[in-house]
């Protein structure tokens, strides 16, 4: 019988081992046996906590998503400026935080995106994550722009964040956080500058 309090420790060990395994060999070859070996546990422990590999992958993605959410929330709590620009800026910063652009995280996100197209449970996670980003961006743009413009600006900035992240992940080089943020800020400021202009400008 496992010791009291071991479940969160074991789960975290297995999630970290999953990130390492995907970083080393990719999701397809990140077998239960390899993940268990990296975590220093038996194969049966994975079945006990996660049922199967898909359950473990889903838990690993929730871990990365929660790290993103927590990072943005912490940055928001530290804000002294309540302007839409300040809030949009921390959303951008959170999406390009080190927790999201390190090697294992980037490879895991890429593998997750590909795999989610074939697994409904993973696809639901992906849709939740996409909708959260869009909704948070739209909420801030809506404070200064008419709703149709706010929605368009949010879709554009969400696509730009994803695109910058994807190009960085596929480049093979260290992620240039400063450059990605600068490009996203320029788009954000361009959209915010439309405040007060006519709908057809």
Automatic annotation (TrEMBL):
Q: Name one GO molecular function term.
A: transcription cis-regulatory region binding
Which PROSITE patterns does this chain map to?
HTH_TETR_1, HTH_TETR_2
Under the heading InterPro entries, the entry gives: BetI_C (IPR039538), DNA-bd_HTH_TetR-type_CS (IPR023772), Homeodomain-like_sf (IPR009057), HTH-type_TetR-like_transc_reg (IPR050109), HTH_TetR (IPR001647), Tet_transcr_reg_TetR-rel_C_sf (IPR036271), Tscrpt_rep_BetI (IPR017757)
Residues that span the membrane, as ranges = none
Which residue numbers delimit the DNA-binding region? 31-50
Asked if the keyword DNA-binding belongs to this entry, the reply reads yes
Could you tell me the keywords of this UniProt record? DNA-binding, Repressor, Transcription, Transcription regulation
Q: Which biological pathway?
A: Amine and polyamine biosynthesis; betaine biosynthesis via choline pathway [regulation]
Spell out the Pfam families in the cross-references: TetR_C_6, TetR_N
| Functional note | Repressor involved in choline regulation of the bet genes. Repressor involved in the biosynthesis of the osmoprotectant glycine betaine. It represses transcription of the choline transporter BetT and the genes of BetAB involved in the synthesis of glycine betaine.
* Protein name listed in UniProt: HTH-type transcriptional regulator BetI
């Amino acid at each position: 019988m496992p010791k009291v309090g071991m479940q969160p420790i074991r789960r975290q060990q297995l999630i970290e081992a999953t990130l390492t395994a995907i970083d080393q060999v990719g999701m397809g070859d990140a077998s239960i046996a390899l993940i268990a070996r990296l975590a220093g546990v038996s194969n049966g422990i994975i079945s006990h906590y996660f049922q199967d590999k898909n359950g473990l992958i889903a838990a690993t993605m929730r871990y990365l998503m929660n790290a993103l959410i927590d990072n943005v929330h912490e940055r928001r709590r530290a804000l002294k400026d309540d302007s839409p620009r300040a809030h949009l800026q921390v959303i951008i910063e959170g999406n390009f935080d080190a927790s999201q652009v390190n090697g294992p995280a980037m490879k895991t996100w890429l593998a997750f995106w590909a795999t989610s197209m074939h697994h409904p449970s993973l696809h639901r996670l992906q849709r939740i994550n996409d909708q959260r980003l869009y909704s948070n961006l739209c909420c801030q743009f809506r404070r200064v722009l008419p709703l149709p413009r706010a929605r368009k600006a949010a879709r554009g900035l969400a696509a730009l964040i994803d695109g910058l992240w994807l190009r960085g992940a596929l480049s093979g080089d260290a992620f240039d956080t400063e450059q990605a943020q600068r490009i996203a800020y320029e788009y954000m400021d361009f959209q915010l500058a439309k405040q007060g202009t006519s709908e057809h400008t």
